[in-house]
Amino acid sequence: MHSPSNLGEKFDYIVNLYSEKIAIYYPEENLQFSYSELNKISNACCGFLNYKKVKKDSVVAIFNDKSIYGYSIIIACLKLGIPYVNLDETSPSSRLEKIIDIISPKLIINLFEIEAVDKSFRKKLDQLFIHKDEFTNYLNHTNYVIKKNKVISTNPAYIMFTSGSTGFPKGVTISHGNILNFISWCKDEFQITYSDRITNLNPLFFDNSVFDIYNSLFNGACLIPFNKEQTKNPMRLVYLLEKGMASVYFSVPSLLIYLISMKTIKDDSLKSLKKVIFGGEGFPKNKLKILYDIFGNRADLFNVYGPTECTCICSSHKIVKDDFSNMSSLTTLGKLAPMFDFQIINKKNDIGELVLYGDNVGKGYFNNFQKTKEVFIQNPKHNNFIDIGYKTGDLVKLGKNSNFYFKGRKDYQIKYLGYRIELGEIEAIANLIKEVCEAAVVFQKTRFSDGQIVLYVSLLDQMDSIFIRNFLKKNLPDYMIPKKIIQLKELPKNANGKIDRKQLINLK
User: Fold this and answer.
1) By C-alpha distance, which of 252, 230, 205, 237 is closest to 111?
2) Superfamily (CATH H level) for 417-505
3) CATH domain 7-324 topology
4) Predicted confidence band at 134 (pLDDT cuts at 50, 70, 90)?
5) How many CB atoms lie within 10 A of CB 298?
6) Which CATH code for domain 335-409?
């Protein structure tokens, strides 16, 4: 086959090769779908999008339940050149409305039960909503006609939302070409084949899910989805991983640490695993050593790194015994993928901000030119041609053999529970409370855990912290709610008159 110019062509090629092979397997229900079945349903979804007059480059938003219909609508969007956005059904109405304002979707497809999505949000946008019954009835009872569009590598494939420092989330736009490069690199880096069975533990609105979907369904491998409830029950999860005969596992370190802490992963567990991949946050060495002792002799462990703006992952490192010679530091992020180049700018003591260049740098932030201009920058080394890089905000040090080491964040952005969070977004919401005079959010390291989000406030009038917490819950996802809310008469200031966050970090 000639090199595909879009993901629809890539998927059609895979279907032709592996028509009767299992594409998706649900171990809880013992339910499976072949590539030909997945292709048939995705074509019906194309017919539905044509029927609803969704044009190329219009956006479709999806409350995605990881059902066969959820994956099929993603593939249909890719075939028609329609960028999709997977939404978090548990997010507050106010946050969802901000996202909808940014993307102006043609449709909002809800694959969950109606009550799973905030009622006020549904009511405001009722004219855009397509509920599960309407959607599946069309697919099952209509003779559809597909009107194909010309889709090229630079067309957007998906928009992935991350936390924004101004209180507004940012929608990262990733193209078909970005993902095709990503699939090719991952296939080589992790030796992925059509015989693999790859987990989808990550929520579909979270960047790590890009690895799961595209490295399985676009390589002829089998995808094994897990829902939120299944990942919360450690014994059940390990049982289902074993039943699904998962060979490639990918999650944030927090989930692996949870499984280890609950003693559900043992020396004789998960014998089918060949690759254990983790990324999205740091993995403390003492806990990583436990994982290595279990799997080191029978599976490869990989620490991976990559900002959402650069197509999920841009570097990896295979864990080896020597990584544990120094237990006080995080393991290396590894070497950059070959489609990337880099600069380390504003160095101090060999540590500086990482700027990434290359074919897998995304297309910027959807409908946010100003923010795009701030961090997607022309290569400062020349002005001879367009050469756009992404300022990651990650502070790194380049070690031996071109290995990168993470040394912190330039700003107040953190990685927590696998999610990238702008502490400024939490502050922006807290400052909406009229009684709040000042607010500052910091991430404190703790003795018994990897850290916690703490909100400090000074108030004009006395207020119960429960009220503040409930207000935050109405406007932020659960993973962004501070562990502690501490009231101070006045927040400390530095010499410039600004809030002294370093002092707050050290407060106990």
Assistant:
1) 205
2) ANL, C-terminal domain (3.30.300.30)
3) Rossmann fold (3.40.50)
4) very high
5) 11
6) 2.30.38.10
